[in-house]
Amino acid sequence: MASSNLFRKKTLDMVLSETEAAEYKLKKTLTAIDLIALGLGAIIGTGIFVITGVAAAEKAGPAIVLSFIIAGLACAFAAISYAELASIFPIAGSTYNYTYIAMGEFIAWIIGWDLILEYVFSLPAIALGWSGYFTNLLASVGINIPGWAANSAWQAAGGLINLPAIGILLVIAILNYIGVRETATVNNIGVAFKVFVVLFFIFVAAWHVKPVNWHPFMPYGWQGIFHGAAIIFFAYIGFDAVSTAAEETKNPAKDMPIGILGSLGISTLLYITVSAILTGVVSYTELNDPAPVAKALNLIGLNWARGLVSLGAIVGITTVLLVMFYGSTRIIFAMSRDGLLPPVFSKVHPRFRTPSLAIYLIGIVTMLVAGFLPINIIAELVNIGTMLAFILTSIGVIVLRYKQPDLPRKFKAPGVPWTPLLAIAFVLSLMVSLPWETWVRLIVWLIIGLFIYFGYGRHHSILAKTSEG
After folding, report:
1. Which residue did the predictor score with more confidence, 114 or 377?
2. Residue 72 in contact with residue 270, Cβ under 8 Å?
3. pLDDT surpasses 60 at 133
């Protein structure tokens, strides 16, 4: 096959026809409010309830506020690019499909494979965090899950299997299976509760802030601030999950930009406020804890509020699981529909209109990993995969502006090419802050993907069949 075939591209007409084909048609039920809630469901969770404390204690100190601003700016510039592309292409698959149209099949495969890493392999790690909060909450009311059932042998001594992690992933898979409307409804309820809990913490803890805790403000210098930003980037990655829902949105051209930018803006304001109050209430040196918000309340004598915060954390992490699971199935669905993965994964359930076999696959893989294996490096690995997706999305906006200027853009990113170039610059500055081991793991994952593409994908893609015909 000629090397030029590696960069064969889909057209807008081809994309739109795919979404209308009866055998692939998904149900359009989502509104702008649903999309904002979907974004908040994915963003507000592990980051605000877990990672904030560790990043403050080990990386940035009270200047974690600046880390959130830097990470938020990087995501904001990338989100503007996402919003433009999502308004043009109302199709599942997010960056994968945008890249397929802008830069061709080979680059699309790389980013699709990268997105599978981001979504699928973040699920077991998040489920393990959920399991920890859940078992602790039960223990606080006198219900103790045996150690062998709450951890695998690789996760803790005396463990056998992590049943809570498997259980929550099973529930999430069922919700995704029965339909996007049901998934969105559960997510909306969960988002409302966890936002209430975050606002509750802000209101209660703000009265206990001691400015002395903000000194020294930058104990680890600017390097620590950027290291902190690279770690807490994990807290923001969920906003791109909104773009995977374009094909199931009633008015994607109008609602997708609102959902993407709205959820990111609200989340950023909450993150900055919580991190400022958290480091003002207690010294950053005491926040290296898997439940920093609950610990801070305990240290200032508000132990009565810990139960509510722990429950909020469980709900928050549950909605993250819900949205990330949803996004992972839609990406695999889109790649399968294009022929780059086996066609069985794009089969749509005749009643629920969901990609049922893709849901089976993700459910089985994530439950096995969460139930039996340890995951302690997933945040950095998922981060670098997401950063790569952001960079390619930003490049895609520039390429399409110059190569296809007449595409119908219901939302136009301001300041192109400078806005996407700023996104690229910010994200690259965070990528270089990650350890070299993380880069090695990303390269190994991409090499595995190349074997699959050259062994299967390029011969079975819909564009390969078109050129043969």
Report:
1. 114
2. no
3. yes
> Is pTM, for the whole model, over 0.85?
no
Q: Which of 327, 331, 335 is nearest to 453 (CA)?
A: 335
pLDDT digits (tens, 9 = 90+) for 179-190: 766 777 777 888
Contacts of 306 (CB under 8 A, 6+ apart): 294, 297, 298
CB 387 within 8 A of CB 380: no
pLDDT in tens, 207-216: 999 999 999 9
Q: How far apart are CA 324 and CA 207, in angstroms?
A: 35
Q: If you average pLDDT over residues 251-278, what whole number do you get?
A: 88
Among residues 456, 443, 183, the alpha carbon closest in space to that of 345 is found at 456
3-state SS, the chain, equals CCHHHHHCCCCHHHHHHHHHCHHHCCCCCECHHHHHHHHHHHHCCHHHHHHHHHHHHHHHHHHHHHHHHHHHHHHHHHHHHHHHHHHHCCCCCCHHHHHHHHCCHHHHHHHHHHHHHHHHCHHHHHHHHHHHHHHHHHHHCCCCCCHHHHEECCCCCCCEEEHHHHHHHHHHHHHHHHCHHHHHHHHHHHHHHHHHHHHHHHHHHHHHCCHHHHCCCCCCHHHHHHHHHHHHHHHCHHHHHHHHHHHHECCHHHHHHHHHHHHHHHHHHHHHHHHHHHHHHCCHHHCCCCCHHHHHHHHCCCHHHHHHHHHHHHHHHHHHHHHHHHHHHHHHHHHHHCCCCCHHHHCCCCCCCCCHHHHHHHHHHHHHHHHHCCCCCHHHHHHHHHHHHHHHHHHHHHHHHHHCCCCCCCCCCCCCCHHHHHHHHHHHHHHCCCCHHHHHHHHHHHHHHHHHHHHHHHHHCHHHHHHHC
Start-to-end Cα distance in the chain = 15
